[in-house]
Design a protein that fits this description.
Elements: H1 2-48, H2 52-70, H3 75-97, H4 103-117, H5 120-142, H6 158-229, H7 234-249, E1 253-259, E2 265-272, H8 274-281, E3 285-287, H9 293-300, E4 304-306, H10 309-315, E5 324-332, E6 335-344, H11 352-403, E7 419-427, E8 430-439, H12 445-490, H13 494-509
Antiparallel strand pairs: 1-2, 1-6, 2-3, 4-5, 5-6, 7-8
Length: about 525
Amino acid sequence: MDQIIGRDAATTESTERLYKSWRERFVLPLLLGSLIFGAIGLLPTIIASESVLVDGLFIATYALIAVSAIFNFPYSARISAFLLGAYVLGMAELISLGILGDSLFFFLALVVFSTMLHSPRAGVVSIVTVMITFTVMGTLIQSGHFETLNPNAAPSRAEDWISAGVALIMFGVVIIIGFRQLENEFSQAQSRITQTMDALRGERNTLESRVEERTQQLRRINEVERAVAAVLDLNEILPLAARYIQNEFGFYCTTVYILDSSGQWVELTEAVGEAGRLMKDKKHRVNVNGKALVAQVIRSKTGLIMEDNERIVQEYPLFPYTRSLVIVPLVAGDTILGALEMHSSRDAEFHPQDLDAFQNMANGISVSIENARLFQEARQSISEMQATQRQYLETSWSALASERDLQYALGDAEQSGGNSFEAPLSLRNQVLGEIIATGAKEWTPEQKNLVESIAAQAALALENARLVEDSRFTASQEKLTNEIIAKIWAAPNMDAILQTVARELGRNMEASEVEIEVSMEGAGDE
C-alpha cells in the first residue's frame, strides 16, 4: 500500500514538474508576442489618447513587459509582469471608457492567463481583484466622484456594472473549472503513462532476468553435456553426469534410473545426495508398468514437473526436503534407456519452459551413453578380431614352421663375444620368431632401434611372402581341380568317368594305388 501511495505521489510530482516546465517554456514567447503586437498598437493609442495618465500607464506597462522579456528573471516575476500588464490595460480602458468599453476583455484575459500560467487559485484571486475594482470604480463613477477620461464615452448605469460583474464571474468560474479539469485530465493521463512505463520497465526487467536465468541454465547444461561427451566408459558416465548436475544446479538430490535387460524394471543406478545414496545401496528399482512417476515418464517418454508436496511426500518418503521435482526420460533415438530425476528444496523451482532445456540435457547424456556402449562393442569386436588374427597367425606359422626349417644364421656365435641382443619378429602382437644379434661390443640404443625396425619390416615381409605362397598354392589347386573336373565331364560313360577319376588322383596325388568302389550296402541301415 505504501508503495502505491509513494508511486502516486511521485507521479503527481512528475506531472507538476512537466506542467511547470511547459509554462516556463511558454512564458517567453508570450512576452515576446506581447512586445511585438504591443508595439504595433501602442503608438496609435498614445496619439489618439488625450490623457497623460493613460499614456503613462501604457508606456510603463510596455516597459515592464520589455524588461521581463529581455532579462532572465524568474518565472514568477515574468508572469507577474505580464498579468500586471493585462490588469493595467483593463484598468486603463475602465478609466477611459467606463464599463461599456473593452475593459471586460482585458480582465477576462487576466483571469485566463492567471489560471493557465499560474494556478486556479490565482484565477480566483484575479476574479476577486477585478470584482473589487468594478465595485470601487462603479461606485465612484455612478456617484459622480469620478468621470471617465474620454468625454465621448457612453454613460453607464448600475445595471451595466452588475451585468459586467456577473459575466466576469460566470466566464471566470467556467474558465477556472475548465482549466482545473484539464489539469486533472493531464495529470491522470500522465499518471497512466507513468504506470504504463513502470509496467513496461517491470516486464523488461523480468524478461531480462529470465533471459539471464535462461542463459545461465543453458551454460550449466552445456557444461554437463561437455563433461559427459568426453567420457567413453559406461561405468564413469552416470556418476560424472549426476555429480556435474548436482554441482552446476545445486539440487537437493539427483538420481539416474536405467532400464534393465528385461525391460520390466528401472533400477536406481546412480545418485548424488544422502537419501539417493541410501536408495542406491538398497538397490531400489521401479516397475515400468507401475504407478510411480518414473514409470509414467518412461512409458510416455515425456518429461514431468511435480510440485504437489503431498504427492512428492507419498512418492518419496526418504526425501523430506523435496519441494519441486522434475523427471525427464533418457532416450537415444527411439530407444528408452531410463530416466533422470532432479529434486529441489525450493518451491516452484521448475517452470514449464525449463522442461525442454532439461530434456535436451538428458538427450545429450543418452547420446553419450549410447556412444560409450557402441565404443565398448566396437572395442570388443576389435579385440575378438585381433584374437582371431593372432590365432590364425599362430596356426599358420606353426604349421609352416613344422614343415620347413625357417632358420638362418650368419657368422660364428662362439667367436662373436658375449653381448647379444634379441629383437622379436612380431606381427599384430603375435611373435613369429626373433632376431638374435651377438657382438663383441655393447649394443647402442640407435643400433637396437635399427634392429627392431628391421625386425618389424621383416615380419611384415615374411607374412606377405607366406600369403603369396598360400595364394599361389590355392590357385594351383583350383586350376588342377578344374582340369580334373573338365576331364571327368568329358568322359562318355560311367567306366570312363571312374577310370578318369582314379587315373588323375593317382597321378596328381602321387598315390601308389587308387581304388573306387560304388556300392549301396549299408545305405538302408542309415
